[in-house]
Amino acid sequence: MDVNLALSPQAIAFARLDTKPKVLARMAQLLSTAYGIDESEVLENLEAREALGSTGFGRGVAIPHCRSTSIRRPSLALLRLEQPIDFAAADARPVSLVCGLVSPENAGATHLHALAAISRLTRDEATLQMLADSPDTEAVYALLTNQLLQNAA
Hints:
Pfam families: PTS_EIIA_2 (PF00359)
Structural class: alpha/beta
Domain PTS EIIA type-2: 4-147
CATH class: Alpha Beta
Organism: Erythrobacter neustonensis
Protein name: Transcriptional regulator
Distance between the termini: 8 Å
CATH superfamily: Mannitol-specific EII, Chain A
InterPro entries: PTrfase/Anion_transptr, PTS_EIIA_type-2_dom, PTS_SugarTrans_NitroReg
Largest sheet: 6 strands, mixed
Strand content: 25-35%
């Protein structure tokens, strides 16, 4: 199953943030800058989704996600936190890797397939360790691009 996730080098950042609201705001900023979508719309949609229940996936990973009318395909951003924070994750572990996803408004199955692809990527212990150990955002981009291409094949 080919998800065709957009991934821009500008959508990857390392940051020191200490609360979930700050993480969601930075994620909205990353998605906005990288994909040219409205930052306030994305933040509002991410916050609305998070209000339904934590997107803390477990194992130190959160996958905040939403939809937008101003995007054509599922688009990914990644934020690696310098210090893990409480994200009210399912397993109660603090989160240090945040994978943001914004999909087109009417992309029902495509949005779910994109979430599944991110989930598969972050379930792999070796991949998580490589993401944690990457020295810079360029290395993270190369790793993600390689992993997403492998998973699409």
